[in-house]
Amino acid sequence: MEEIYIVEGKSQGKKYAKYIFYGIIAFLAIYMPFFGSDLRYQLGAIFDMAFNIIGWFCVFGGIIYILLGVLGLFGRNILIGRIIIGALLLWVGCWMTGIAINFFGVDFGGSSASSKGYH
Predict the structure, then answer these.
(1) Is 79 inside a domain boundary?
(2) 82 inside domain
């Protein structure tokens, strides 16, 4: 048998949520007016590296899924879903890394993918 205890009282989560909220407000009020432009470029460099790493995983995963889908066409496992998932992973990976891949006449990535959106 299980016993369930119900304890009434103030939750600790709400107390910590207030401190986090106050910390965000203090950060925005004190740090951002003086160093906000530098923070933007620092975060851009950090997230650019993370996007490149995630993008390369998506590119390799897309290539593997497309190859498995094409090889499945010659066998008994005809799964078009693998090719579609591979194409989507390849498209996302090319968009994140900024490279261009031409696969059977279909361009993934390209000139629009090289623009990351910051100046």
Answers:
(1) yes
(2) yes
Give the contacts of 96 (CB within 8 A, at least 6 positions apart): 51, 52, 54, 55, 58
- pLDDT at site 114: 46
Residue located via tokens 């851009």: 44
Nearest partner of 92 among 60, 118, 48, judged by Cα = 60
Average pLDDT rounded to a whole number, residues 3-18 = 65
3-class state of residue 103 by DSSP:
strand
Looking at the 3D structure of the chain, how many domains does it have?
A: 1
Please check whether residue 8 lies inside any domain of the structure: no
Which candidate, 109, 80, 81, 106, places its Cα nearest to that of 93? 109
Assess if residue 97 is contained within a domain. yes
Q: What is the pLDDT of residues 26-50, one digit of tens each?
A: 887 787 777 766 766 777 777 778 8
Residue range(s) defining the domain that contains residue 60 = 51-109
